[in-house]
Amino acid sequence: MRSLDDLAASGRTVLVRSDLNVPLATDASGSPVITDDSRIRASVATIRRLADAGARVVVLAHLGRPKGEPDPAYSLAPAAIRLGELLGRDVVLAEDVSGPSARAVVAAMSDGDVVMLENVRFDARETSKDAAERAALAGEWASLGDAFVSDGFGVVHREQASVSDIARLLPSYPGDLVGAEAAVFTRVLNDPERPYVVVLGGSKVSDKLGVIAHLLPRVDRLLIGGGMCFTFLAAQGHGVGRSLLEADQIDTVRGFIEQAAARGVELVLPADVVVASEISDTADTQIVRVDAIPADLIGLDIGPESIALFRDRLADAHTVVWNGPMGVFEKAPFAAGTREVALAVSAIDGMSVVGGGDSAAAVHLLGVPAEGFSHISTGGGASLEFLEGKTLPGLAALEETS
Q1: How far is CA 309 from the centre of its chain?
Q2: Whole-angstrom Cα distance, residue 173 to residue 12?
Q3: What is the pLDDT of residues 285-309, one digit of tens each?
Q4: What residues contact residue 402 under an 8 Å CB cut-off, 6+ apart?
């Protein structure tokens, strides 16, 4: 794969695929407001580097899931404004994806300018299953530029026009963000410093089957929390009340438990959980051991004994990957497990990696200092597929064009 150092950017029009898919809320006047700009901040370094080198930078990005046609609710206008503020320069937003406005905005650029095209998902060809349709849209973008830089790690696991197809049509390079993400996940997969501990959470064990299967031969310890732990507990014969349970995965999970024992991998499950009858900020909670979960209650967080256990099993680690919250962290009564595990991961003497998605959101929402982690990924789905050992189309396309 080429390096961004290989790109002679001055005077050239460079298309940059960024991940600007930020969460939005509405203020009192009805205007959209970005509630978390971390993805935009993560995109700034590559864009600034290219603009400072004299490139004409054309940013491609998506926001939300519009239905393949223009929708004002998903306009990139808020992202263009915020990106301009962070760059300290105006960012002009084209009115369309690849049509007359996009062409006019690009034609009017000078060296060092940064512009943004409208939400690439306003064109149904972006996510089409028809390769010819995607290639046609990618060709329209390629006609605007001289080179392509892939810097949206959150989308590199997608076979999409602005991710993989365009990379096959122009000289293509990984941006600083994609390069750093790929290097981190390659290292934790192939060359981790030991002890190597992986912490998995989130709601469904079915979302993590590939990760568990791929990591079991590689890790020293596997800590399981979140809703997915109840399928593991059920596989051990425990009743889990009304907790989230994927009964069709019990046999698979039982197989993982047996594989871990055979490989000498320490599999750590919660010892106690926080239960309630409902998910709310005012829920009445109880702390119960995992072999005594009431039949009419729901497990919604790991308990204090589990927190202490997880903290102890993280203390001597030199490499930790954490993906998935320990409970329903968005609600105060069920946030302690995620917060305390996050703090324990951030405190290790070694490499600590947060696998994006809900884990990264939890770090932000719960006020855990981000600087305590070695790396916080910007791509939840991409990081999971990387950890599963899958081929990521956006990265594969960069390798093909090297």
Answers
A1: 27
A2: 14
A3: 999 999 999 999 999 999 999 999 9
A4: 1, 2
Q: What is the spatial distance between Cα 372 and Cα 66, in angstroms, rounded to a whole number?
A: 36
Cβ contact 33:26 at 8 Å: yes
Scanning the structure block, which residue is given the tokens 């998935």? 324
- Nearest alpha-carbon partner for 302 in 388, 200, 208: 200
Helix-, strand-, coil-residue percentages of the chain, each rounded to 5: 45, 15, 40
The reported pLDDT for the residue numbered 1 is: 78
Q: In whole angstroms, what is the distance from residue 17 CA to residue 133 CA?
A: 19
Record the tokens describing residue 286, joined without a space.
């109880």
| Tens of pLDDT, residues 6-35 | 999 999 999 999 999 999 999 888 889 999
User: Taking a C-beta distance cutoff of 8 angstroms, is the pair 338, 327 a contact?
Assistant: yes
User: What's the pTM value of the predicted model, to 2 decimals?
Assistant: 0.92
Residue 252, CB-side half-sphere exposure with 13 Å CA sphere: 14
Tens-digit pLDDT profile for residues 87-131: 999 999 999 999 999 999 999 999 999 999 999 999 999 999 999
| Residues with active-site annotation | 39, 204, 357, 381
Enter the DSSP assignment of 123. Answer: S
SS3 274: strand
Alpha helices for 32-126 (secondary structure H) = 38-52, 77-87, 100-107
